[in-house]
Design brief:
The complex is a heterotetramer. Chain A has two domains: 88 residues, Alpha-Beta Plaits (2-Layer Sandwich); 63 residues, no CATH class. Chain A contains four helices and four strands. In chain A, helix 1 runs antiparallel to helix 4. Chain A is rod-shaped, with a radius of gyration of 26 Å. Chain A starts with a strand and ends with a strand. By secondary structure, chain D is mostly helical. Chain D has one domain. Chain D is built from 16 helices and four strands. Chain D is globular and about 70 Å long. The chains are: A alpha+beta, B alpha+beta, C mainly alpha, D mainly alpha. Chains A and C meet through strand 2, helix 2 and helix 3 of A and helix 1, helix 8, helix 10 and helix 19 of C. Strand 2 of chain C pairs antiparallel with strand 4 of chain D.
Chain lengths: 168, 248, 459, 467
């Protein structure tokens, strides 16, 4: 895994400064990221806004669930055409309810898969991290392809007032 | 949709209330024929007795000129049976001969069907049925002994229907009208209970059911029963126990 | 509504994780006592399955009794979770934050409990595999999907699966937090469970967007579940008092009423047991009580409609049924208690802010509501079945047997037991939401007035 | 339902800037004067249509006043108007209760609809005259008035609608006091005089504001209760009780909910046009449409839910009542209207409103709202026309034995319906000449309570939530 360093801040402002500094220092977006213990308003650190395709997942799941349910409900009735209470063999209005439930179920499951996938989890090598981030500290993590730029990254972090810099 | 129109048989019963004398012979016959557990005093008191057919008695008028009215009630084998669609396992459904059949082996005992039935003719087995030693050999081999935890009800003596149709098939003839008799109808001394095939226009029951006295129980539920009642004719006033009960 | 309180995050962690990081003194004794009760219940259930339903008080024509009532009751309670976490999330109500997880938890566990009752109330439970696992070809018969009893398991399992996943997704950041606070095998466990959560913008965005999306998806399920449960009853045209078109929304709003009350009860308990006075505050109870007033009044309107249109037909059996339900012993007593506890006592009390912000009073009133709502289900199901129609030749009223009561009590012990067990390993108050509300609330000075304000992201 | 989520895609525009209070007052007061030519033309057209409608109503009453089976369409119209004109002010109320900030600028335009309840009353008059009494030749028909006097339905429904009108106007007025004051201060001519008279010495002291808020809350609550009550009475007395055996407990709630749906749709339409043609973009932010869109979407789903939960019960129950009701209400001669309603009231709006992009825009939203209104009209027709076409000698049977011949609209009905609807539009348009279409003080409050801020590096809005 490539080299990466983590600068720790206690306040959002200096963290944001660090992010700006990194942009100016010519690090392209995506190579550096901010770690927080709570969600901040989007773009609060001037970080790049992550793109996602979450909305496709439920639609996809719903379609699968719907087709499955149509098949299931229709086949179970046609395979055993037993008249009950003078209801039609293909009782659409009874089928609708089960079709609805299965559609929603598949939609939800697909959404959850989507959430996990889109947040790039599970990730068993999370990389450089600090437990104080869940205590309100803010981490700015930079990953390098070449070792040369480590120094100016550190300088940027220090200039912004990083309380601590970790290497990994 | 109803199954009666595409089957060759549509078994049904015509009950002439006018002829019923309330002797309860049908009830006894049914109990004996269908291996129904003995209704001990305790079960009757706890409203857990099982009687596939019952004779209800109503009093009309006040003493001294009170009249007793009788009406035998068994499963009505409705075409639009409320009990059927609610069963999750098809344990009760409508077969092609117009019977509302109860498949004991499928039943899981949700008792939902009994909730749906307005005639209260479905019964639940709370305990494993037991018979005294002396009665062990009196059980009818043609009829399943129902284990605990399942529903049961009048089957129009389906085993007799099967037997007759087997005989007819082996003899290569149609089932003659009146060949099939349920336990209750064969036991009825006044032939108030008449069993037969409604799809055969010349059968006895088909002729009887067009009588102008005919009515069905609780018709406001639209169940379309296969048991037709013929109203009681009264010298002084034209009202039958059945109607009194129906519009009760 | 939400007073702003500066809470240091370290403090927040320590307080809200006190259940997991160190065990409270009362925890072990309580859990063991509950465990004993649960054990007794399980034994009783086993004996009932072994002996047969004769041990219950059921008798013709009342074929459904305490079990189905309690089933409906627990399904109703389960409507707390999505009501709180989904609807309030979509309406961006700030005060929902400390409540959401506990509510979702209540949903999951009460559904698990509710599912037990249809199983054990059947005559041959061991055969119910036939309609839970319907598609074994060896049996050669499929289930009858026209039956509401098939729609029930489908709907409830959908709801259960959905809320469980929802719960887990919302748990991820807190699992990461616990991972950072723990060591040893616990640390390993939380590391695996948190899937390597780090808290970068992408993950947080998925939390917010995904949370709202899931809420939007869960909402229709939430509505459908209790509607389908209500159709178990409403489709039976032969049962006066059941065959009413209003049942679906009527049951749903009743479920919300009882569910939200149950959440109030739980919040009070959490506040007392874990000493979370800083996080679960009077204004939360205040907000919930305001919500409850609206819900309860809506529910009352539906009750009124249900009654009106029951009598609307002016059929003799229907009127006889209502007469029994309201004026005959013992139903009349139950009916009076039901009305007093479900509406007449709590709602007028909630009108006063002093009551709304008094935790003890809220605790007791919310319990009252649930007594009333249980009675409501009982009064719908049993008198409806003990019909007053022609050809009902047994006018036997139904009296629950000790066995049924034991199993009824078991269900409560079971839910509490599961809750406490969960609380040992996972935080009951979502920490990150708590902190988020710290980040997202500020005070604005309008003139001299200090007014709490919320940061809304521009969209 | 995926896109019901309040996600915000990549576009990250800063929220629109605030407007200074004095500018708000000046510009909004200015909108009452200086109507464009197009506006005048519309007003004339609508006015003529309305007069034609009223005339047609009178003639129809003289001509066919004796035959109740011919009045189904008028009943449907009354129900439609009750839904739209009655439901719209609720849009002003419900979110206010929830302290939503986006609703503040648009409460006025919603509460203007309450004046249109006049039309509902006018159209109700002949119906009340024709509605058969509870007891006809000795037989009492099924109603909610079990043993009540014979004319209770007539009295109480009328009373409820009158109450609705009064409360609606009171709601409007109590919220409009400060605006009359600002008219008094900034307007000219008769508007100035009117403002002077109606402002009742409003200067905006603390006490006055407190009473104002109290009044709004009080009248809002009353209005809601009365609206539900009116829906309940109208659907039962003028709908269900006209059909033997029609017993649908959910119908009043169904009617109310679809009424809210129609009300929101009406508000969206009014909002769209006033925003477009009165240049109010900087007061009515897209945020309002966004929130209204979500509300409308939810109500659209509620419609199908309420409908299905009554339908499935009939479908399973299949007692004689149930079958008769289904055949009469749905499978009968009005099936075209039913399917039309189903498509236009649920299916099409559902597929329109499900998209975030649509709910962030205005044009497609307003189209969807029009679709909903048409669908609602069809829905009311399929409910009330069959109900009223039941011959008077059958309405106290136990259940409907034969499905009666339906009644097709004649020229009068068409004129009446067109007239009634255009009269509503006419009244609302005229009211915008009298008072500002957006409530001045609430726009100012909106700007006061929410201000765009720069949060660290990102854009956000800071919304104050006063208790």
């Amino acid at each position: 895994m490539s080299k990466s360093i983590l600068g720790l801040f206690q306040q959002p402002e200096p963290a944001a400064d660090a992010m700006d500094g990194l942009k100016e220092a010519g690090f392209e977006l995506g190579t550096f990221d901010v770690l927080t213990g709570t969600p901040y308003p989007e773009g609060a650190f001037g970080e790049y806004v992550p793109q996602h395709r979450l909305f496709r997942f439920p639609a996809f799941g719903a379609i699968i669930g719907f087709t499955l349910s149509v098949f299931l409900t229709a086949v179970t009735q046609l395979a055993y055409p037993m008249v009950t209470g003078g209801k039609p063999i293909m009782s659409i209005f009874a089928m609708l309810i089960i079709m609805y439930e299965m559609t929603m179920l598949a939609g939800v499951i697909a959404t959850v898969i989507g959430i996990v996938f889109e947040s790039r989890l599970p990730n068993m090598q999370p990389g450089i991290y600090d437990t104080r981030i869940t205590e309100g500290w803010i981490g700015v993590v930079i990953t390098f392809d070449d070792e040369s730029k480590v120094a100016d990254a550190e300088s940027v972090l220090n200039k912004a007032g990083a309380l601590e810099i970790k290497h990994a | 949709m109803t199954t009666a129109e595409f089957g060759t048989h549509n078994w049904g019963m015509v009950v002439d209330v006018d002829k019923c004398i309330g002797c309860n012979a049908c009830v006894i016959a049914c109990q004996a024929e269908n291996n129904i557990p003995i209704n001990t005093q305790d079960r009757v008191e706890r409203a857990r007795s099982i009687s596939w057919i019952r004779v209800e008695r109503y009093w009309e008028g006040d003493f001294p000129d009170a009249k007793a009215r009788f009406i035998p009630i068994m499963c009505q084998h409705c075409e639009n049976a409320p009990c059927e669609p609610v069963c999750p396992v098809y344990a009760t459904y409508h077969n092609s001969e117009g019977l509302n059949v109860q498949v004991y082996n499928r039943c899981v005992g949700t008792r939902y069907c009994a909730n749906g039935c307005p005639y209260i003719v479905r019964f639940f087995n709370y305990w494993e049925p037991v018979w005294p030693e002396s009665l062990r050999n009196h059980l009818n081999p043609d009829v399943t002994v129902r284990s605990r935890g399942i529903m049961e009800k009048c089957s129009f003596c389906v085993h007799r229907i099967r037997r007759e149709s087997r005989n007819a098939r082996s003899a290569g003839v149609e089932i003659a009208d009146g060949a099939v008799q349920t336990a209750c109808s064969s036991a009825c001394p006044t032939s108030a209970l008449n069993f037969g095939n409604f799809n055969d226009p010349d059968s006895k029951v088909s002729k009887m059911k067009d009588d102008k006295r005919h009515y069905t129980l609780l018709d406001q539920f639209g169940t379309d029963p296969n048991v037709i009642y013929l109203a009681k004719i009264d010298a002084d006033k034209k009202i039958s126990a059945g109607e009194a009960a129906t519009h009760g | 509504m939400q007073q702003r309180r500066e809470l240091d995050q370290v403090y927040t962690n320590r307080k809200l994780l006190n259940g997991q990081l160190d065990t409270p003194k009362w925890w072990l004794p309580t859990v063991s006592i509950l465990g004993v009760v649960v054990l007794i219940g399980v034994v009783v259930i086993a004996t009932m399955v072994n002996k047969g339903l004769g041990v219950t008080g059921l008798a013709r024509p009342v074929y459904w009794g305490l079990f189905i009532t309690t089933f409906v009751f627990w399904v109703g309670i389960s409507h707390a979770g999505i009501m709180i976490s989904a609807i309030l999330r979509l309406t961006q109500a700030e005060w929902r934050r400390p409540v959401t997880r506990a509510a979702e938890l209540l949903t999951v566990f009460s559904l698990l409990t509710a599912l037990v009752f249809p199983l054990i109330h059947a005559g041959r439970p061991w055969r119910i595999a036939y309609w839970i696992m319907p598609y074994d070809i060896s049996r050669g018969i499929y289930p009858n999907i026209r039956s509401p009893l098939i729609m029930d398991p489908v709907a409830i399992s959908t709801y259960l699966t959905g809320s469980t996943l929802f719960l887990y997704i919302a748990l991820l950041p807190d699992l990461g937090n616990l991972r950072d606070r723990t060591t040893g095998w616990k640390n390993a466990m939380y590391t695996v469970l948190s899937l390597g959560w780090r808290g970068n913008p992408r993950q947080w965005k998925m939390q917010t967007v995904g949370g709202i999306l899931l809420s939007a998806l869960m909402l229709p399920i939430f509505v459908s579940v209790h509607s389908i449960v209500s159709w178990d009853f409403a489709v039976a045209s032969a049962v006066e008092g059941w065959h009413s078109t209003i049942f679906a929304p009527y049951f749903v709003i009743g479920a919300v009423h009882s569910g939200v009350s149950a959440v109030v009860t739980m919040m009070a308990l959490m506040r007392w047991l874990w000493k979370w006075d800083d996080f679960i505050r009077p204004e939360h109870f205040d907000a919930l009580a305001r919500l409850l007033i609206v819900v309860a009044t809506g529910w009352l309107a539906f009750t009124f409609l249900e009654l009106t249109f029951a009598l609307y037909g002016q059929d003799a059996p229907e009127i006889a049924l209502r007469e029994m339900q309201m004026f005959q012993w013992p139903w009349n007593a139950l009916f009076i208690i039901f009305f007093l506890t479900a509406y007449a006592i709590p709602v007028p009390m909630w009108l006063f802010k002093r009551v709304r912000t008094n935790i003890a009073l809220m605790f007791w009133t919310s319990i009252l509501v649930n007594i009333g709502m249980w009675l409501e289900r009982f009064l719908i199901i049993v008198p409806g079945l003990a019909r007053r129609t022609p050809f009902v030749y047994t006018w036997e009223a139904y009296r629950p047997s000790p066995v049924e009561w034991t199993i009824f009590i078991w269900s409560f012990a079971w839910v509490t037991f599961l809750m406490l067990l969960f609380s040992k390993f996972f935080p009951l108050v979502p920490l990150f939401e708590q902190k988020e509300s710290q980040v997202f609330t500020e005070d604005v000075m309008i003139g001299r007035a200090k007014i709490p304000a919320i940061v809304r992201e521009a969209d | 339902m995926a896109s019901q989520a309040v996600a915000h895609e990549s576009e990250h525009h800063a929220p629109p800037p605030n407007v200074d209070a004095d500018m708000v007052a000046r510009e909004l007061i200015a909108t009452t004067t200086g109507a464009s030519g197009r506006f005048k033309a519309w007003v004339w057209g609508l006015g003529i249509l309305s007069i034609a409608g009223i005339v047609a109503l009178v003639i129809k009453f003289i001509d066919q006043g004796d035959d109740s089976t011919k009045w189904g369409y008028v009943a449907a119209l009354v129900s439609f108007l009750l839904s739209v004109a009655g439901g719209a002010p609720m849009v002003a109320m419900a979110p206010v209760m929830a302290k939503a900030n986006w609703v503040r600028p648009i409460t006025r335009i919603a509460s203007l609809f309450s004046f249109a309840s006049v039309v509902t009353l006018v159209m109700l008059i002949p119906l009340v005259a024709i509605l058969p009494p509870l007891v006809t030749e000795g037989a009492r028909r099924r109603t909610i008035w079990y043993e009540a006097p014979d004319y209770s339905p007539h009295i109480w429904t009328t009373l409820a609608l009158v109450m609705l009108l009064i409360t609606g106007i009171m709601l409007f007025y109590s919220a409009a006091l400060p605006d009359f004051a600002s008219m008094r201060d900034h307007s000219t001519g008769w508007r100035k005089r009117l403002g002077k008279r109606l402002a009742r010495g409003w200067v905006g002291t603390d006490a006055q504001w407190r009473t104002l808020r109290m009044r709004i809350g009080m009248f809002g609550t009353f209005y809601f209760l009365i609206l539900v009550f009116a829906n309940f009475l109208f659907t039962t007395d003028f709908g269900q009780s006209m059909v033997p055996g029609w017993r649908d407990a959910i119908l009043p709630m169904y009617h109310t909910v679809s009424g809210f749906q129609a009300g929101v749709a009406g508000v969206v339409i009014a909002l769209y046009f006033s925003r477009k043609y009165m240049k109010l973009e900087k007061f009515i932010h897209l945020d309002a449409f966004w929130s209204l869109g979500r509300l409308l979407f939810a109500l659209t789903l509620l419609w199908i839910y309420f409908f299905y939960s009554s339908f499935i019960v009939f479908w399973y129950g299949r007692s004689e009542n149930d079958i008769a009701t289904l055949n009469h209400q749905i499978k009968g001669p009005m099936i075209w209207a039913f399917f039309g309603a189903m498509i236009l009231l649920w299916f099409v709006p559902w597929w329109i409103l499900i998209w975030n992009k649509v709910r962030r825009g205005t044009t497609v939203m307003v189209m969807g709202s029009f679709v909903i209104l048409v669908g609602l009209m069809l829905d009311r027709i399929r409910m009330f026309v069959p109900a009223w076409s039941v011959p008077g000698d059958q309405i106290h049977e136990k259940w409907l034995k034969v499905i009666p011949e339906t009644y097709w609209p004649d020229i009068f009905d068409i004129l009446i319906m067109a007239g009634g609807i255009s009269l509503v539009a006419f009244i609302v348009m005229m009211m915008t000449r009298v008072v500002p279409v957006l409530s001045v003080w609430q726009v100012q409050e909106f700007n006061l309570l929410s201000k765009p801020i720069k949060y660290i590096r990102g854009h956000a809005t800071l919304v104050a939530k006063p208790d």
